[in-house]
Amino acid sequence: MSYVDGFVAAVPVANREIYLQHCTEAAEVFREHGALRVVECWQDDVPHGKLTDFFMAVKASEDEAILFSWIEWPSKEARDAGWAAVIADPRMDPAKKPMPFDGKRMIYGGFAPLLDA
């Protein structure tokens, strides 16, 4: 069964095109190292909540948009090997390719699908 890495982040609205370029290049690297699919979604209809919401979860400021993304892998084993290869890939060196957002506020995790209808 497949495996999914999920991400939520706050990206400065002014960095939308820079982010698109960044994630387009990164998606190529992930696909080369075994990812089946890389999906990046920019905030469109994201409500503000009273107790919790995406904005609070990543401490988004007024000038930031919510990013929701995922990477689909063939299996957890493929994901583990793929991530190791991505991290070792010189194209992903954060010194040469810094993220265009504050990665410390990103939420991420790996998920085993429960239902795929």
Task: Tell me the strand percentage band.
Answer: 25-35%
Kindly name the structural category.
Answer: alpha+beta
Unreliable stretches (pLDDT < 50, length at least 5) are: none
CATH architecture: 2-Layer Sandwich
Element order: H for helix, E for strand = EHEHEHE
Which sequence of strands runs across the widest sheet? 2-3-1-4
What this model shows, in words?
- The protein is of the alpha+beta class and 117 residues long.
- Helices cover 29% and strands 26% of the residues.
- It is built from three helices and four strands.
Strand and helix layout:
Elements (H helix, E strand, L loop, with lengths): L2 E10 L3 H17 L4 E6 L11 H4 L6 E10 L2 H13 L18 E5 L6
In short:
Helices cover 29% and strands 26% of the residues. With 117 residues, it is an alpha+beta fold.
List keywords for this structure.
single chain, 117 residues, alpha+beta, Alpha-Beta Plaits
